[in-house]
Amino acid sequence: MLKFLLWCILLVISWPIALAALVLYPIVWLLLLPFRLVGIAVGGALALVWAVVTFPARLLTGFR
Predict the structure, then answer these.
(1) Where in the sequence is the domain holding 40, given as residue range(s)?
(2) Residue in 28, 30, 29, 6 with CA at minimum distance from that of residue 18
(3) Number of compact structural domains in the chain
(4) Is residue 8 part of a domain?
(5) Which of 4, 6, 14, 20 has the lowest CB atom count within 10 Å?
(6) Is residue 64 part of a domain?
(7) Contact by Cβ (8 Å): 18, 10
(8) pTM above 0.70, yes or no
(9) Rounded distance between C-alpha atoms, residue 32 and residue 23, angstroms
């Protein structure tokens, strides 16, 4: 909702920039999508490494 309100303000101030933002937003989103997927994969890999490293300590403390 906040993005829409900011876009409306931009439309009132400068309609050509608002229309350009409206057209370019999906393109930029598609260009950044692979980076998000890589971030999710790296986060999952780091969580797996953390689970493997902390597993012996969890065994000794009784799975709290």
Answers:
(1) 25-64
(2) 6
(3) 1
(4) no
(5) 4
(6) yes
(7) yes
(8) no
(9) 15
